[in-house]
Amino acid sequence: MLQTQDAIPVTQRAGSLTLADLFLQQVALNAQGTALQDDSRRLTYGELNSRVNRLAHAMRSLGVEPGDRVAVLSENRIEYIELEMAAAKLGCILACQNWRQSDSELEHCIRLVSPRLALYSARYRETLSRIEHGVERTIDIDAEYEGLLAGFPDAEPGNPPDPEVGLIILYTSGTTGLPKGALISQRAMIARATISRMDSTVLPGDTFVAWAPLFHMVSTDAVYGTLATGGKVIVMDGLDVPALVRIAAREPLGHLVLMPGMIDRVIDELEASGLEPMNVRSIGCMADLVPLDQIATVTRLFRAPFKNSFGSTETGTAPASRGLIPVGTIPASLAKEQSSHCVIRLVDEDDNDVPDGMPGELAFRGPSLFSGYWAAPDVNERDFRNGWFHMGDMFVRNADGTLDFVDRRKYLIKSGGENIYPAEIERVLLACDRIREAVVVRRPDARWGEVPVAFVTKGDDALSADDVVAHCRGRIASYKLPKQVVFIEYDAFPRSTTGKVKRHELEALLPG
Q: Which structural domain, as residue segments, surrounds residue 306?
């Protein structure tokens, strides 16, 4: 059993802080205020706390102890967030399963963490039944959950956990191999909430719309931060663009998450519906992956700046998410501003600092950092070498301290002895108003070893492959010019849950 706060030295205990502490403060201050809301239900802070306590007692009765893993396979719903808060009170670790994965991937992710208990919704009942998951006790949220809660008291469960132990496991896909489980502590989650409120437009008490899957950090981090600071979480069962626009028209929001790959649909809905957002202080994320004309249009419609972010499951919104792109602007640069409460280095393959203007891998330190990959000692040894977490992302530091994202270190096109990072080419392509989407991959080449290939969605039916190359010529070095242009429909791009295009799946579409 992992230690609770009662088992650690009193001096250390007095300096600790848990998410349960912060949540209970909000319960005391605003018991009748809305904590969670969906299409049919509303829970006040007092009601949510009562249900979370009952759930915590129920889980304890089923043998769940601090440090034990509890798996959840479900769409976004109020019960999912109750599970997240119960984990914070008990000190167990909630392993959030990605329902978009294949059966074999799900089986790997569940078995990786050896859960004591698994909860699932009716929607994924059949999926779980197909998997040899090895979990002895499972609970159907739709059939068993309410009955389970009814049998237990709503008193505080006591024995608060050490905030340094694990809280949640979110899975990261990487570019090859099976998913890894990123273990995130209460300490890290509190730091993430603090940084987001220092560096962004989000304020205590703001409303957050949880439409993105709760198995992803963009929703889970914000849910914990919102409930720890007295805000309201509106729970959506996935992306429903008309419903999202209606919410923005009636609810003031600190920040509205808009992912790459959906923004054109939001623009179309706003223009077609005639609805005007009520008061959204900022929107968006990952500006590098969004066509620049879309950024200008959507910020103008929302009357709100666009978040020029760079973060990760492992680090939260840090290391570089402080910047905002002004309303109606097509930015000349997407340089990032370093986040608060972290320190970074840009290093070469030998962990030496690179000079300004040269690409280097970003190495990170800070309290928002996760606690390592579950059951992956070799990976942790490599990625946490020399006391820094190495993100695998290449950046260039500018003279003014801003950071230009180059690309993932592991996805590199080596052409004739030269290194080519796809994002260098994509930024040029996406600046063309005749191109709606563009992603660059590598293709084996007998002469050069590898060459870049551009997959492009037309914004102008008359656009030709020669036009695409001509647009790039003079804007990037000649050896970086696409050697082939493949036109595909926008919806044909294979994407992850964060909207990032899966380059290796595009490579598979190239002729052998």
A: 239-328+336-407
